[in-house]
Write a structure and sequence with these properties.
Length: 316
């Protein structure tokens, strides 16, 4: 996430009661703590807004429901955990935020642990990357508004950067700092929940070079990446980096999201329909797009970039 939001020793003085203020249809229903602030939507769910950029984490739909659809169900996490005898499953959560995605994975694990009776559950490791922990601190401070935080794990992860389930089968680690630096010390991921702020706020995390570095970190394994973005340029950046790219499930108000994988077979989980990759029709539309190049691709490099996309084996 962007920047360090800590305001120093005078943080207490910066707290302001804004119970009656409104912003983009969201009610600021709590005291804001430093730069992040808690917003409550008319539907009743709460989110955290970063004041410096104006961006809101999960501003349109219920954050817990969005995490469930976009990351947990789409990745078939429950089914993967029930693969008895398989090696430890590693999730990278890029952009801890208020720990919504991480706790969705924890809850999925705990449900699988109770319901799986045909053998031992597959071990799970969650690795969270975040450089600004103030949103999580704020959400925990107002945990009555964030039901997903009614669990011992979030407070423990803030305090110790590590939490382990009593079963010993789930371990959660927090790597605080720059993702591009910290990822080098993390175990190879099987699933990546790619959830930083948008390009406007977290531009360096959406470049072709960053996705190429993530691709190299998979070390030739079978890794799937899930993200809310449907940007044509970002999908092209993922393709250029070496990923195969598919259309993801819809999350309101988006009609689709994006899935990327190191090999097409990683998307196929027994008992579930296959995930369709972007086809040549997408490629033709990309050719005509006015936003076909990610930011930072120099004019002299655009020819090679186009050639790489056209020659991608996904479109053979």
């Amino acid at each position: 996430m962007s920047g360090n939001m800590v305001v120093g020793v005078n943080r207490q003085r910066a707290m302001t009661v804004v119970d009656t203020a409104y912003l983009n249809g969201l009610r600021l229903c709590h005291t804001h703590f430093g730069q992040p602030e808690v917003l409550t939507a008319p539907q009743g769910f709460s989110s955290v807004r970063q004041c410096s950029s104006g961006e809101v984490m999960h501003s349109v739909s219920d954050p817990v429901e969005e995490s469930r659809l976009l990351y947990i169900e789409q990745s078939r996490l429950g089914a993967r955990l029930r693969m008895s005898g398989a090696p430890e499953l590693v999730i990278w959560d890029v952009g801890l935020g208020a720990a919504t995605n991480d706790m969705a994975a924890v809850r999925c694990f705990e449900e699988a642990l109770v319901t799986h009776t045909s053998g031992p559950l597959r071990p799970l490791r969650i690795v969270s990357f975040e450089r600004d922990l103030d949103p999580l601190r704020l959400a925990i401070r107002h945990s009555a508004r964030f039901p997903h935080l009614h669990h011992a794990a979030p407070s423990t992860i803030l305090r110790n950067a590590h939490w382990e389930h009593a079963s010993g089968l789930l371990k959660w680690d927090l790597l605080e700092g720059d993702f591009l630096e910290k990822m080098e010390s993390a175990a190879r991921p099987d699933l990546i929940f790619y959830d930083p702020f948008s390009f406007k706020t977290d531009g360096p995390l959406w470049t072709p070079e960053t996705f190429a570095k993530v691709f190299r970190a998979t070390a030739g394994g079978e890794t799937s990446l899930y993200t809310y973005s449907t940007s044509t340029a970002i999908r092209a950046a993922l393709l250029w980096a070496g990923f195969f790219v598919a259309r993801g499930v819809p999350i309101f108000p988006k009609t689709e999201t994006t899935v990327a994988c190191t090999r097409p077979e990683c998307l196929h989980v027994a008992g579930y329909p296959p995930v369709p990759l972007l086809d040549r029709h997408w490629l033709e539309r990309w050719e005509r797009s006015g936003a076909k190049f990610p930011a930072g691709v120099a004019p002299e490099a655009q020819g090679d970039f186009e050639s790489c996309i056209r020659k991608h084996p996904q479109f053979s």
